[in-house]
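User: Is it possible to get a 3D structure for a protein together with its bound compound? The compound here is zinc ion. I've pasted both below.
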Amino acid sequence: MTGPIIDRWYNLCAWSSILIPSGLFFFKCSGYLWENVSMWLPVLTGLLLLSTIFFLLLTSCTDPGILPRRELRVAVPGLEEEVVASVGTSCPISVDPVTSELVCELTEQQQVQGFRWCTTCMVVRPPRTSHCNDCNNCVMTFDHHCPFVANCVGQRNYGYFSAFLVSTCCLGIAMVIGLAFYVSDYTESSHGHLSFSSDPVLFVVLLAIALPTVLLLLGVLGLTVFHAWLACRGRTTKEVFGRHSPVVAGAPLRSYVRGASLVHARSRVSFPSTVV
Ligand SMILES: [Zn+2]
Ligand SMILES: [Zn+2]
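Assistant: Yes, that's possible. Here is the predicted structure of the complex:
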């Protein structure tokens, strides 16, 4: 989770939208569906809930493809070589005599190929890498920053994010089917329509399941179709909507190779380190 503190509220909203309706569904409908419809409907819904939680955790808690900042590359032995190998090029760094800032003069060929110098991270960005202002990091094959997962979505967690979307869609569809069976059986057995006046508690509970489930399903379904379209075209969200991110001629389409993480959170660092 690399997002700012405000993302915690969006993340909490995502978890609540998944766990509260599904918890009520299992509490109220699963036993009835198991006995009267099919045991496989609640079992399948349970498996889909587990996979949704699993992929949400993986999307939120894995490194999206961060390019380590210069301070980290200097502090961790061998990291600079790893970053250069991953970026695919290097650039001699010098100190600007006027501003005293570190600068890097990229060659014209490097610029045409899509390499850029990030003045915040002090790193050469390979094509399709962007600096996320929410996380304040450069992320490889940057797609977008998602506050609901409190993380960037990029090269290393895009697959998990896509699986989370598909899983959430399937969970929503399974819950809507389960609810439809439950309500139609109730209507048949009680010979009347379910309404607030006939059974207020049941009506409110089913509404608390159905309303967020349908809203979440519609939203996530739209996102899933959009990302399926992006995957077919080999583009990222940033490239489709971003004003300053033209697709570089000759740059490879979306890379599905995750690659090793360059964030060695458990590495021992030498301190103090000289940052020049
Ligand atoms: Zn950056
Ligand atoms: Zn971000």
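The beta strands are 66-67, 93-95, 102-104, 116-118, 123-125, 130-132, 137-139, 144-146, 151-153. Residues 118, 120-121, 131, 138 surround zinc ion (ligand 1) (CB under 6 Å).
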